[in-house]
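Figure 3 (text version): structure tokens given as input.
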């Protein structure tokens, strides 16, 4: 494994040193083996906008890459279910679309993303994600949704979904249990590699690297997303920004990650945002973009 460590403490809002190293590695791989597909595996805390913007910045520089999302692969229909639950009067106006038809209607994911943004919020840096989706929509970039299907309450893997059932034979698997994380990793690796393209995958840390057995999210090295994607023949560039609460896990598990490239950063801003602090998040994200060379239009954050 090739490993690089980057110190961002001089300017915690400038993600360029990380992005520059990731791109340097990408072009080096492509110059040596042009047909090799590359996966940028960008670990983050869902609530930390600065970390999430690393994947967004890479997206603006690698024009052929698909932008993947740790969200249900049947996101359109799961959003329809949430709309029905919140607004029963729309039961007959907003309807499910069979997945195969949806794939034809929404080849680049824009319809699904727009529908979700209009109707749903998640626990995390929503405005940062939404701005990146707007960038994709405005620039004709493909988005993919690669996580397992989940039950209505979001707690279990939905085995009524054919893709999820292929990897999970029990309807009782909790999505954040050790088994659930391992199953979701298999599904995400399978759907990511099926894109047959370079791909950018921003993802929660618990999926990316192995975790110790004492952790309730324990995932063995062979079940980590980095390992599974590499085993599918892609070259993996893994980016691990500083995450204070997970630092012991990073320190103990990074050395045996995989054979690709690892970029481990420290010193980045770690302010967290959620649905209650969206205005502050917008201002913060614009500041990160400005400090990092202006890779996206500030108007995308709104």
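Below: residues designed for each position.
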């Amino acid at each position: 494994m090739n490993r690089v460590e980057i110190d961002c403490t001089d300017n915690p809002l400038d993600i360029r040193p990380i992005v520059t190293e990731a791109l340097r590695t990408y072009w080096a791989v492509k110059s040596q083996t042009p047909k090799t597909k590359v996966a940028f595996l960008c670990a983050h805390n869902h609530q930390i906008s600065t970390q999430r913007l690393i994947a967004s910045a890479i997206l603006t520089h690698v024009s052929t890459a698909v932008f993947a999302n740790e969200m249900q692969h049947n996101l359109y229909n799961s959003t329809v279910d949430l709309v029905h639950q919140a607004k029963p009067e729309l039961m007959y106006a907003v309807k499910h679309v069979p997945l195969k038809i949806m794939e034809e209607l929404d080849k680049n994911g824009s319809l699904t993303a727009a529908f979700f943004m209009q109707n749903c919020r998640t626990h995390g840096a929503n405005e940062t994600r939404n701005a990146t989706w707007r960038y994709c929509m405005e620039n004709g970039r493909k988005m993919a949704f690669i996580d397992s299907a989940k039950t209505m309450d979001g707690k279990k893997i939905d085995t009524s979904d054919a893709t999820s059932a292929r990897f999970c034979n029990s309807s009782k698997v909790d999505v954040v249990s050790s088994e659930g994380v391992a199953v979701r990793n298999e599904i995400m690796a399978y759907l990511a590699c099926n894109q047959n393209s370079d791909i950018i995958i921003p993802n929660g840390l618990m999926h990316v690297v192995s975790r110790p057995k004492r952790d309730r999210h324990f995932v063995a090295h062979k079940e980590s997303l980095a390992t599974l994607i590499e085993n599918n023949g892609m070259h993996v560039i893994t980016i691990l920004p500083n995450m204070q609460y997970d630092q012991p896990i990073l320190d103990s598990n990074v050395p045996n990650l995989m054979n690709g490239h690892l970029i481990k950063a420290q010193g980045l801003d770690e302010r967290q945002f959620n649905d209650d602090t969206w205005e502050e998040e917008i201002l913060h994200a614009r500041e990160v973009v400005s400090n990092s060379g202006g890779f996206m239009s500030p108007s995308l954050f709104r």
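The two ends are 40 Å apart (CA to CA).
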